[in-house]
Every structure is written in C-alpha cells, then in structure tokens.
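WARN no homologs supplied; continuing
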Amino acid sequence: MLTVFGLIISVVAAFNVYRIAKKNERKAALWAVIVFVTGVVLEVVIPFLLVLGGVFVLASSGNSINKAGKMMKNPIIIIDTICLIFNIIGILVMTYLAARAPKEKPFTTPPQPPEFN
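OK structure emitted
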C-alpha cells in the first residue's frame, strides 16, 4: 500500500516539478523525468531488491520459502516506510533545485553604434 502511495506522490510531484521548471526556464521535461524515475527507483526497485535479498538469505539458511516469506512480513513494512520517507525527501530536494532561479548573466552594455557624418 505504501508503494502505491509513493508512486502517486511521484506522479504528482513530476507534474509539479514540470510546471515549476518551465516557469523558471529550465528543461522541464528532463526535471519531470528525473523526479519520476527517482520515485520509481526508490519505491519499487530498491524495496524489491532488499526484500528479495532478505528472502534469499532466510531461504539459504535452511528456512522454507513460505516461512521466509512470513518472516519478512514486518521488515517489508519497515523497508517500504523508509523508502517512502527517502522518496519524499528526494522530491523536496529536486523541487527546490528546479525552483532555484537560474543564474543571471551579467549585464553588458551594447557596443556604440557607428557615428554618421
């Protein structure tokens, strides 16, 4: 359930970052893709790999697959919660970076036009 909530947050954040980056004249599509991909990695890929690794460790230590799955029930909730927190922190950081005003170029005076006689 937390994974679905995190993915919804990532989609909404991608649209928000797109709007903010476009307003600040940045590459809006790139920022939106970065936010969404980061959310998917933090909400799907990393928890999947952690849980899969935990099940393999438990199964290789002599437990059956069913028992290993039951033993991973509480750690799955903890892993999902930690990944959701990191996803929210990552979204906030990327929103802040996209919202920063681009560095202004120093103003230089244009060259003087030629004088006509």
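Residues 2-99 form one domain.
OK
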